[in-house]
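Records of this kind hold a single protein each, on a pair of labelled lines. With that in mind, the following record should read easily:
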Amino acid sequence: MHNITTWLESNTFHHSQFWDLLRLIRRKEALGLTISLCIPTLNEEKTIGKEVVLFKSELQDRYPLLDEIAVIDSGSTDRTLEVASAFGADVYSSADILPEQGFKRGKGENLWKAIYQLTGDIIVYVDADISNIHPRFVYGLVAPLIYRPEVQYVKSFYDRPLALSKEIRSSGGGRVTEILVRPLFSLFFPELTAIIQPLSGEYAVRRQILEKIPFPIGYGVETSHLIDVYTQYGLEAFAQTDLDRRVHRHQEIRDLGKMAFGILQTFIKRLNANGMVVDLPQLTMNLRQFQVRESHYEQIIHEIVEEERPAMQEIEEYQEKFFHLQH
């Protein structure tokens, strides 16, 4: 097993290490790299405008780090697309991208279709609901890819800067990370416990990696990425950057249960694919939760099917667009 302590020291960064954006841009240009920002959305009119304005003004107009800023939308019924377009983002409906492949509702679907729609050598994904948005959410993630050619996939973590703290503080992911994903990684993929926040929604990845891995359309997409990249390339393919603090919506415990159920489906599928479990029975796709109505206990059944899109390189339209067969 890789020395996790060594990896943490060499592949964990703080965004302040990359404050010199002009140096970063010079290096990017010298390498001939292009960078696309994807913001997946569903009814985010309250925060999307601020994100687009900030990234366009700071990381396109003032410092030309981003070559493309795009919103990929799952079918918003509010003014998300109108606001994003008005402030300068390219806006796309997920249903209109690769229409021959159909449309499936989910964040993972948006991330997958972005690989086809966007053109960058590096794609950085940033959630649309961040109220304390800052340029570090982009440059802190793409910088390790620009400066370290062996790094393929950069995850974010946040709350407080571990590296700069003068006192020992606990740090980790959210509730689903700590009660589900980290215990599962500890049991089956202990090296992946080095990823401080495996479910963080902000990460930057080289296209050559993204096009090779399948995408769950729902809650399991981040977990699947980590396992699939790890099993193919090892821990050394990853890096992570401390972004200090992220402020966003707080999810209800019932919704976290749905998330955990989808993640667990994805996880078990990969255990099976890697020969780590055998002879599994047919598993139900029904999550059962309860509510009380006037002293009557009602069971609520949610059907959650964690469908997956194939690796994008298998899609004929993608091969034609990006001349993939020449790679």
User: Anything to note?
Assistant: The longest strand covers residues 286-293. The domain at 4-267+307-326 is CATH 3.90.550.10 (Spore Coat Polysaccharide Biosynthesis Protein SpsA; Chain A).
